Amino acid sequence: MTLYQLQVFLAVVKTGSFTKAGELLHASQSGVSHTIADLEKELGVLLFTRNRNGVKLTETGNQILVHAREIDNQIEQIYHTVASTKGVQSGTLRIGAFPSYSNKVIPGIFQAFRNHYPGIELLLLEGSYAEIESWIKAGAVDLGFLPNPCEGLDMMVIVSDPLVAVLPATHPLSKQEVISIEQLDNEPFLLLKSGCESLVINAFQENKRILNTQFEVLENSTVISMVESGLGVTIVPSMILSVNSVNIVVKQLNPPIIREIGLAVRSKQNVTPIVRAFINETDSWLVKHVDGSTASF
What we know:
Elements: H1 3-15, H2 18-25, H3 29-43, E1 48-51, E2 54-57, H4 59-85, E3 91-97, H5 99-104, H6 106-116, E4 120-126, H7 129-138, E5 143-147, E6 154-168, E7 178-179, E8 189-192, H8 197-206, E9 213-217, H9 220-228, E10 234-237, E11 248-253, E12 258-265, H10 273-289
Parallel strand pairs: 3-4, 3-5, 7-11, 8-9
Antiparallel strand pairs: 1-2, 5-12, 6-10, 6-11, 6-12
Helix pairs in contact: 1-2, 1-3, 1-4, 2-3, 4-10, 6-10
């Protein structure tokens, strides 16, 4: 049994798919499938059941998962130790992030990082997708949180953020469990111009439906307030929603629209020990708190 086989096993568990696990690990679907098959052959047990809806852990696979995660945690500690010997003791790390991400997960990630690396100063710069991209390319920040893909930068996808439909509480569709793009055809629409609007526009175009845009809005809180006032419906990343929102209903989309968020750097070949330590800490925190994905440059 190899460490790579365990990494592939954990990636399949987290994504529920050989194909998605391959995307995380920058490997082919067939490569992931062969790796799992070799591991099952070596252990003499089935780890997953396969069907057209994906893969699911067997009872034995669930038992092995506990030990695999323990091994993964130990490997993480080894990386922490090695990072310390390479000088990850002091310095400054500059990080770019967009507001909805900063608000939801940055505090937890920063606290976890400081617990392990108290001598590193963290500087956060908030901006739009375009600003963060330009900061990374210019060297103004060491790395940044951005949606995937991002042309010209090396990216590690760390978490998926599904988009959701947001409607006034009195809307005729408010009682439905899920909403389709077809049902929003020609509805008064509030388009959030935060950088992921292309996902919404593409979804309407692919389904040959009319996106009846009434207003284009820049701020997350503004678009939700406008829905609360009954001015229209919207589709936004689930991450921007607040538990304090009233007079709205939030519905899952079918088929789903997913925004992938990753950590971007200018070049994965020139990642410093401090940056690598932050990437590892971010991934570890997300796995525990936001069902994030494990990957590395």
